[in-house]
Design a protein that fits this description.
Oligomer: single chain
Largest sheet: none
Distance between the termini: 66 Å
Order of helices and strands: HH
Number of helices: 2
Number of strands: 0
Mean pLDDT: 77
Helix content: 40-55%
Amino acid sequence: MASRVSLKSKGKTTNKGSKGSDDRSISPAVKEWTSWTMKKAKVITHYGFIPLIIVVGMNSNPKPQLSQLLSPI
């Protein structure tokens, strides 16, 4: 037998023009892949944001030195 995983939404739901939220299901592999992808995206964003800002700043005109970009003054 195939098991079904249904997503339950929070809050009020209106079923205008749809069969209901119980008919929607996704496979466990898709849920696992989505969870893994979001975790990796969070880490990449967390550690990549400041270096991205430094690279963008170094490619602007006039070209500042790295010490000028990193100093708070």
